[in-house]
């Protein structure tokens, strides 16, 4: 054994010892997902090192892959090349035969969100992020919900919630009402707070829903600020009508949720949002694309040259609606989310659209509730809080469903789970790349290993899992977040407060050329008729 190999072995042993010591010390271990899980005394890092060398893996970026070493110092990738030689005092990880890739970025989460009369979703910024890290996601973008319509109050509330973060995060901000104050606050969000996207809910009538007038005002403002307009696309008025219809028919269980909001309502709202964005000439991002109907509207718009981004979420890609008909209420209720998980066939069509570039990146819409919270709707599906888990499962399920099936390449995998999100939200190549100078958010995935999902072993606080029992190939064996090894040997070592807020600048690549198409539009307008007042 040469001296480098010996060094690798001893460093690995040290790492394992440090990790198991952390696991056996109750004040220092990753706290159990359901007990005393919070922001104190939980997960003090023992396994991190400021210098890490990842040896001999296949380093994958969105446009290139090569066998190389990756050297990390103080949270930053310093070098990516074959045969990097290093001195002592460095943690060495052997990645031979494995893929070294940028940590996942989840563009769509709801941690610690007050929603549908429920105090908050079950995962906060610590437990949700711990789950994310165990699944290979190292950054997420959550949605700030305004407080009483105020973006500032909402932002401040989320700043507080996120103090316990164990990984990097950013924010989108929802717009739920319109007046001059909101319009001014949008400017403050973009120019001072690091926000470059705003979300408009076209559903949830009476709670978050906005009308077309507000959409138009909001889209215009987004465009002027270089911020991306995002929509939850379902026709909320028609959903309200559909819900009444189901109740009148005596359908009160979870299946009523799916029946009350069919895919046509998602298609209609997606088409409407796309046309209004085209009218304003601003880019549009459609969140949680769940149906063929919505996907086809996006495909059509993109084909015509419109800048529309489509985000499927893991639940829509890999599940069908059969669970909603389960005879056990808790089992059925766990699948309730909006737009609903669709009948078999939509899932495969969304996968195909993702592999062909019609849809661009995968989120989770992680919005977890436990069975007690879900049981609020035991007599009426309208009261079941909408939302499912996924932040921990996304990287594994996308690998297994898309790469193992041969639908996409490993580089495509990096693009749809990380790089594209970084580009859209204008933080590439700081995030979404294994390049010298990028943040050291890295995963090592073993394609020959396998995973199994269960609520008994997951790290989310929720007591159910919509992917219960699912097995597949490809396992994230190591997660490095901000230069710290946080997941190795199936052990998590996470530190509350170690995650950083990532400011996202406006005017991403999606805004390139908007001024030119505006000018073309103006010059294309037929000249107004010259009219003369009659002298009679
Ligand atoms: O059911 C869902 N999707 N819950 C989260 C809120 C939203 O619509 O994104
Ligand atoms: Zn939504
Ligand atoms: Zn959502």
Summary of the model, kept short:
The protein is of the alpha/beta class and 536 residues long. It has one domain: TIM Barrel. The protein has helices spanning 3-24, 127-134, 151-161, 180-192, 212-225, 236-248, 255-260, 263-280, 292-303, 314-318, 329-333, 346-355, 371-374, 394-403, 410-424, 514-524, and strands spanning 51-61, 64-73, 76-81, 91-94, 99-102, 104-109, 137-144, 168-174, 197-201, 228-232, 284-286, 308-310, 442-452, 471-481, 484-488, 491-492.
Which small compounds were modeled alongside the protein?
Answer: N-(aminocarbonyl)-beta-alanine, zinc ion
Any idea how many domains?
Answer: 1
**Major beta sheet summary:** 9 strands, mixed
Percentage of residues in helical conformation = 25-40%
CA distance, first residue to last residue: 107 Å
- The appropriate CATH architecture is Alpha-Beta Barrel
Mean pLDDT comes to 92
Give the radius of gyration.
24 Å
Low-confidence stretches: 1-47
With helices defined by DSSP (H or I, 4 residues minimum), what is the helix count? 16
- The total beta strand count reads 16
> What global shape is seen?
globular
Looking at the chains present, what oligomeric state does this protein adopt? Answer: single chain
CATH-assigned homologous superfamily: Metal-dependent hydrolases
Computed structural class: alpha/beta
- CATH top level? Alpha Beta
The fold-level CATH name is TIM Barrel
* Strand residue percentage: 15-25%
């Amino acid at each position: 054994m040469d001296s480098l190999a010996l060094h690798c072995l001893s460093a690995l042993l040290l790492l394992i010892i440090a990790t198991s010591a952390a696991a056996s010390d109750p004040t220092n271990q990753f706290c159990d997902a359901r007990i005393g899980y919070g922001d104190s005394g939980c997960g003090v890092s023992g396994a991190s090192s400021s210098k890490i060398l990842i040896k001999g893996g296949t380093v994958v970026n969105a446009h290139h892959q090569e066998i190389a070493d990756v050297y990390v110092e103080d949270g930053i990738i310093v070098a990516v090349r074959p045969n990097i030689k290093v001195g002592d005092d460095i943690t060495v990880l052997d990645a031979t035969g494995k893929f070294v890739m940028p940590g996942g970025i989840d563009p769509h989460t709801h941690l610690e969100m007050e929603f549908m009369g429920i105090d908050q979703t079950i995962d906060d910024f610590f437990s949700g992020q711990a789950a994310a890290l165990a699944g290979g996601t190292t950054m997420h973008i959550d949605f700030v919900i305004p407080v009483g319509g105020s973006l500032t109050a909402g932002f401040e509330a989320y700043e507080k919630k996120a103090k316990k973060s164990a990984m990097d995060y950013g924010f989108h901000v929802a717009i739920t009402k319109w007046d001059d104050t909101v319009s001014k606050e949008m400017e403050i969000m973009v120019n001072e707070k690091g926000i470059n996207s705003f979300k408009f809910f076209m559903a949830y009538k009476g709670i978050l829903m906005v009308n077309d007038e507000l959409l138009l005002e909001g889209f215009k403002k987004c465009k002027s600020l270089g911020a991306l307009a995002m929509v939850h696309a379902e026709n909320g008025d028609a959903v309200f009508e559909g819900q009444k219809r189901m109740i009148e028919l005596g359908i009160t269980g979870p299946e009523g949720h799916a029946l009350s909001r069919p895919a046509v309502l998602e298609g209609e709202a997606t088409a409407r949002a796309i046309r209004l964005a085209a009218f304003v000439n601003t880019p549009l991002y459609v969140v949680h694309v769940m149906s063929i109907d919505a996907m086809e509207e996006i495909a059509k718009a993109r084909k015509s040259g419109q800048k529309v981004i489509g985000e499927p979420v893991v639940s829509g890609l890999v599940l069908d609606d059969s669970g909603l008909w389960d005879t056990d209420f808790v089992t059925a209720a766990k699948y309730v989310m909006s737009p609903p998980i669709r009948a078999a066939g939509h899932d495969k069509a969304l996968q195909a659209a993702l592999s062909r570039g019609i849809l661009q990146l995968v989120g989770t819409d992680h919005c977890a509730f436990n069975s007690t919270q879900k049981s609020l709707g035991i007599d009426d599906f309208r009261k079941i809080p909408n939302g499912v888990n996924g932040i921990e499962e996304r990287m594994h399920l996308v690998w297994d469903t898309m790469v193992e099936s041969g639908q996409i390449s490993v580089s495509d995998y990096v693009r749809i789970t990380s790089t594209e999100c970084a580009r859209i939200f204008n933080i590439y190549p700081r995030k979404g790349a294994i390049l010298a100078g990028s943040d050291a958010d890295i995963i090592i995935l073993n394609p020959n290993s396998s995973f199994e999902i269960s609520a008994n072993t997951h790290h989310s606080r929720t007591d159910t899992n919509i992917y219960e029992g699912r097995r597949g190939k490809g396992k994230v064996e190591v997660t490095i977040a901000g230069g710290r090894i946080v997941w190795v040997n199936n052990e998590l070592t996470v530190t509350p407060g170690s995650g950083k807020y990532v400011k996202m600048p406006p005017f991403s690549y999606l805004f390139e050329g908007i001024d030119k198409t505006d000018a073309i539009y103006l010059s294309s307008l037929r000249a107004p008729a010259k009219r003369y007042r009659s002298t009679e």
